């Protein structure tokens, strides 16, 4: 029930990002010469590494979900024995990877501002920061959600379906945000 | 039940040709409608696909059979809050935060602080106190 509601909400989030994509393409069609000069300033290999970090966080998140579905909140083996990890360990790893993604993106923003692309400098700056910025806010929201879910797992004396359900729907959100980033990355850094 | 997934997958079948026809009629130059229509296809596909996936996972349900009995659906459906004050606290803190954007930035900090309390209160309502489990 909770998961169906989450998917319906994520479908509406898809249309929110549809508006951002529409904005990007409209501005791009209006001033193609600006896109030609401004996209050269992007650091594509840097963003590619960041994308790989975000995609790998989706995998660690899914392993956390498998642990949650087995109602296993904590690890049963040693710290570095990943096969025996529970939901908490996988979600903490996911949180760290997601935090790296947001930090690297913030660093990339400062680089671009140094190259003269700011939110208020030109239409390209607006399109770039609005699309990636709203995505970054979604990632940040997901990181907060992971903290709350990890806290719930710690607080529960008996880790049950109540905790597992919230972990699963948080993973839905995380995968969704990840897929949106892959589309954004393909459009902004490759299609240009 | 098949109807629940096809209700949305039907939207996919409808909007996909619509999006392509729209693209050709505008000469692939109108960049608001084209991405919006194609993502509408994705929206319908996402909902329909998820419902189909869930239906497969849950298996045949008694409400789909003519001889289904009410008691066959007995059991735990999920955890639902009977009532809660926390959504009002979240809404109030969000309102104070947005008021800060309109009037003065200092109000935003009050809204942000209250939001932290509200979100933690809402998330942990059934994990602590009398509901600790």
TrEMBL record, chain B:
Pfam families: Cyt_c_ox_IV (PF12270). Its main location: membrane. It is a multi-pass membrane protein. It is found in: Cell membrane. Its EC number is 7.1.1.9. It catalyses: 4 Fe(II)-[cytochrome c] + O2 + 8 H(+)(in) = 4 Fe(III)-[cytochrome c] + 2 H2O + 4 H(+)(out). The keyword Protein transport does not apply. The chain crosses the membrane at residues 7-25, 31-53, 74-99, 105-124. InterPro entries: Cyt_c_oxidase_su4_actinobac. Keywords: Cell membrane, Membrane, Translocase, Transmembrane, Transmembrane helix. Belongs to the cytochrome c oxidase bacterial subunit CtaF family. Associates with subunits I, II and III to form cytochrome c oxidase. Part of cytochrome c oxidase, its function is unknown. This is Cytochrome c oxidase polypeptide 4.
């Amino acid at each position: 029930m909770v998961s169906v509601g989450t998917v319906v909400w994520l479908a509406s989030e898809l249309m929110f990002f549809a508006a951002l994509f529409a904005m990007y393409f409209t501005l791009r069609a209006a001033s193609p010469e600006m896109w030609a000069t401004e996209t050269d300033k992007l650091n594509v290999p840097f963003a590619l590494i960041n994308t790989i970090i975000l995609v790998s966080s989706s995998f660690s998140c899914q392993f956390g979900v498998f642990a949650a579905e087995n109602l296993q909140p904590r690890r049963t083996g040693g710290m570095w024995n990943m096969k025996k990890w529970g939901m908490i360990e996988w979600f903490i790893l996911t949180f760290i990877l997601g935090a790296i993604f947001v930090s690297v993106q913030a660093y990339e923003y400062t680089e671009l501002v140094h190259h003269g692309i700011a939110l208020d400098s030109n239409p390209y700056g607006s399109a770039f920061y609005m699309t990636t910025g709203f995505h970054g806010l979604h990632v940040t929201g997901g990181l907060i959600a992971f903290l709350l879910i990890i806290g719930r797992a710690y607080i529960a004396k008996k880790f049950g379906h109540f905790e597992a359900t919230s972990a699963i729907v948080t993973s839905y959100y995380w995968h969704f945000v990840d897929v949106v980033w892959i589309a954004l990355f393909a459009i902004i850094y490759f299609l240009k | 039940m098949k109807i629940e997934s096809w209700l949305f997958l039907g939207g996919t079948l409808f909007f996909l040709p619509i999006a392509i026809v729209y693209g050709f009629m505008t000469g692939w130059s109108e960049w608001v409608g084209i991405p919006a229509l194609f993502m509408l296809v994705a929206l319908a596909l996402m909902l329909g696909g998820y419902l189909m996936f869930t239906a497969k996972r849950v298996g045949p349900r008694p409400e789909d059979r003519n001889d289904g009995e009410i008691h066959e659906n007995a059991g735990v459906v999920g955890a639902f809050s009977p009532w809660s004050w926390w959504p009002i606290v979240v809404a109030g803190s969000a309102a104070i935060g947005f008021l800060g954007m309109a009037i003065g930035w200092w109000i935003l900090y009050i809204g942000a602080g209250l939001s932290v309390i509200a979100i933690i209160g809402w998330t942990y309502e059934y994990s602590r106190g009398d509901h600790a489990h």
